[in-house]
Each structure stands twice: as C-alpha cells, then as structure tokens.
Amino acid sequence: MKERNIIFLSIIFFILIISCYASAVSAGTVTLAWDAPNTNKDGSRLTDLVGYRVYYGTSSHHYFQNFGEGINIGNVTTYTVTNLTDGTTYYFSTTAYSASGHESDYSDEVSTTIPSRQFTLTVNKTGTGSGRVTSSPAGIICGSDCTETYSVGTVVTLTGVPSSGSTFAGWSGSGCSGMGTCSITINTNTTVTGNFTIAGRFITVTSPNGGEVIPSGSVFSVQWVSPSDAVKFVLMYSVDNGITWVSIPNASNVITGTSYNWTAPKPWGNRKNKCLIKVIGYDTKGIKIGADKSNVPFTIEVVKVTSPNGGETLTPDNLLTIAWTINATKKSVAKVKLYYTKDGGTTWLLIDKLTDSGYLTEGSHSYLWRVPTAGRRKENCKVKVEIKDTSRNTLAQDKSDGYFTIQP
Predict the structure, then answer these.
(1) Residue range(s) in the chain whose domain bears CATH number 2.60.40.10
(2) Residues 127-170: tens digit of each pLDDT
(3) What is the pTM of this model?
(4) Into which CATH architecture does domain 303-406 fall?
(5) Fold classified for 118-301
(6) What's the distance, CA 255 to chain centroid?
(7) Is residue 205 a contact partner of residue 226, using CB atoms and an 8 Å limit?
(8) CA distance 96 to 36
(9) What is the pLDDT of residues 251-306, one digit of tens each?
(10) Is the domain defined by 7-113 classed in CATH 2.60.40.10?
(11) Which strand (E) or helix (H) includes residue 149?
C-alpha cells in the first residue's frame, strides 16, 4: 500500500523512550508503527515491557477510545486503525506499559487527514424515445455528458426530461424507480438508466424496471404508464427471466389504474435475481392494446448479510458485529447457522448455530463474533448466514458481497 503523510514522534515513557510514525495508507485507514525500545529511560536494559495502547480522536489531545483507556494492542509495534471518516483530520498518540502495570505518558502527538474518496456516477439512456437527463449538483447533461465524479456522501438528484414526441418512462438501476426525480447518495461507482419511449398507444412498465432489490413478502408499488383508452390491466411476474409467468394477484382478476401494491412472493431457497414484471393493457371492449415488461431483471431477497460486507480489515481476537436481515419465508425459521471462509469460499468454517427465538424472526439481527487468529494475512474472507426450517431444510442463505481481510 502506498504510504503518505509519514510523521515521526517519540514517546516519553515512565521507563522507556520509543519512536513512532503514523501514515494514512488509504481512505478510512491509518497505520501506526514504531521501533521497540530495548533500554529504560535511565539507560539500563529494558526487561518488563509487555504492551502498548493506541489513542486517537478528532481534536488535538482529546482521545475517545474505550472511554479514555485506549486500545490495548498487546506487545506489537504496528497497528492499523480502520473505519475512519473521509476528509477528517485525526490525532494519534501511543503509550507503553510494563508488567507491573505502569503506563507511560502520551507520546508526542501526530496527525493526518483521511483522503476523500470519489466515485463515478454514470447515466445511460434506453428506449424508443429520446430526451436528456440532468443532475443537481451540476455535472451531468446526458445527452452530451453522461459521466461525472462526486465525493463520497454527495446526494445527486437526477431528472429525466423527454424530447417532443417522447415520454419519460422511468428509472432503473441503483435503487431508482418510478417517473419522478431520482436521488442517490454516492458511496460507490454507480450506474442509473433513464428510459424514454415514443408518446402514443404504448404500455410502459416504470417500476420495478430493473436493478431493484425487493424483500420477500414486502409490499411493492408496481407502476406503469398507458394511453387513456387502456382501462383494464393484467399483471404477471416471473422469477426465471420470463421463462414462466405467474398472474398477479391471480388469473381471474383484472386491475384498473396505473399502479398496484404487489406483495412480493416468498421464494424457496436463495434470492431470486432474475425477476420481471409484465403489464398487459385492454380497452373497454376487452381488446388488447399493448404489453410491456421490466427492461432489466430485479431481485427478490429472502436473507441478506449486511456486515461484514467487504473491504473491512479485521484484527484477530477483536469483536466484530455480524449483521443480517431475514425477510418473509415459506416456512418458519428454526435455526440460523453462521459460517466464515478464509479461502474465498472453498472451505466454510462454522461460527455458531443459533436457535434462540430472537434470531429466528423476520427483521434485522446481529451476533458478536470474536475474530479468529490468522497465521498470515487472509484477504479472501467472507461471512455466510444460512436459515433452516424445522426439518433442517435450508430455506435461504447469503454471504458477504465482497471480501474482507483478517490480518495476523
């Protein structure tokens, strides 16, 4: 990793003198390192050093770790602080302590500013019609300029403006849907698609139109646009990319209006990520006017791991919160099993089997996991959550989206 802002300091200790530096090696991460001392302050040989404590905060000489007790890192001479806020200046100090419990004064303080990450927002346009997409804050006018870079945390609002003879038919991708404006908080590289159709006698599905993640059993507003003479509609959904279709709410019902509150099904097994909605429109005489389906598949999700979800750097023996969400299932959940892998998924190691009712209901859950030791740095780590019914059948499972790291 590329180092920056390396600053040397010294620790004035009751019995020791050591030197240290801090470097911001990447956004959200700072590494401290120092040379282990071998003599006491009076020049005699050092024999009873047992560890170090790390302190840091966002104000000079005001440290907030563990209520002022610091982070006890043991007898190591490097430590990486993670999950720091972009664009924020942090102040760091360390102390050392002996076998008898004596702790040094704070070292000389060092500081560094965490770099601000930037991500790219890309807008695509699809459909038979034409128009442009604009952004606030400014940067995107698509047509001509469809890509812009924004700092992490920036809220960008996109607006679809149809050309004459066209209709804006809605958004797809990155959680945007419907025909209004689309607001996105930039936390990663993001792609959004604006859909335009030729104005006229067409049915156009606007939501869900691709990329949405819908919890199983939740109520989702299916929306579409249609000409004025389309007064009745039949809705259908598919979980296999259109190979088979199921009527909504059933084959005998016809829907009026241009929206319908649909209760997403409860699929057996893992998430269904090839889902589509189809809308068929009819006039007052029952004559079919037209039909449309989602442009891109969306996902129906049964269980979701939310933490750790990729990019974290973990230290052995520290406590990490594993978090997940259980959505509606076909059968009651009787057991939750937690696993982790250190080799990209070739081997999964059991963390725990959870049967307490507090872990089995719909909603958000968490578990404190003590990070295992690693003989060497493991960069292909993930967590998996598996839910089972009373017959020990697997209802669904999910794992971290990206890899996290366990350092020695």
Answers:
(1) 7-113, 118-301, 303-406
(2) 878 899 999 999 999 988 999 999 888 999 999 999 887 888 88
(3) 0.53
(4) Sandwich (2.60)
(5) Immunoglobulin-like (2.60.40)
(6) 36
(7) no
(8) 10
(9) 556 677 888 999 999 887 778 999 999 999 888 878 787 889 999 999 999 999 99
(10) yes
(11) strand 147-151
